[in-house]
Amino acid sequence: MTNKVILASASPRRAQLLEQIGINFEVLPQTIDETPQIGESAPDLALRLAHEKAQSALECTDKPNPLALGSDTVVVIDDTLLGKPISGIDAVRMLTQLSGRVHRVCTAVSLASRDSFAARLSETKVQFRKISESEALAYLNTGEPMGKAGGYAIQGFAAAFVESISGSYSGVMGLPLFETSALLVEFGVPVWKSSAAIDKLVT
What does pTM read for this prediction? Predict the structure, then answer.
């Protein structure tokens, strides 16, 4: 029997991306301490937090054969980790750091059952054009930067800042679909072949 997939996130973007590849799932958001450990790199932080979210979701459900999916995104520039801004000032500071430069987006996805787990990492380079102070403030006023790693959402208004990307667009959004699909198949979950996905195509 196929395990029931649990998305350990409240992110509507991650839910949308899972739906895009035809996965039936339920949402069980998890709140964990996302503070980086001393000397922890962006890839290591993303992998650790993704795994902790998945494990936390497993501990919060009594469903039979659960399969928890956790994901985490970390933005890094000049070896400086950029998490979610804690204020508007912090968001503008992050945009100023990213302005006119290339940064890396590290997004990890972890899939865990009661007796095993596996994880994959996606790393994408994003080139921003120059962003003026007035543009940064206008973007802040959209409300979009808050709650986003690096203070921006590539699928939203911030798309106007993106000159180019090298890597995974869905990974920058918060859930790398190539890596996620590979993990799901590894755990026996069919991707885009579910009855729900087929029903959407024929109705």
Answer: 0.89
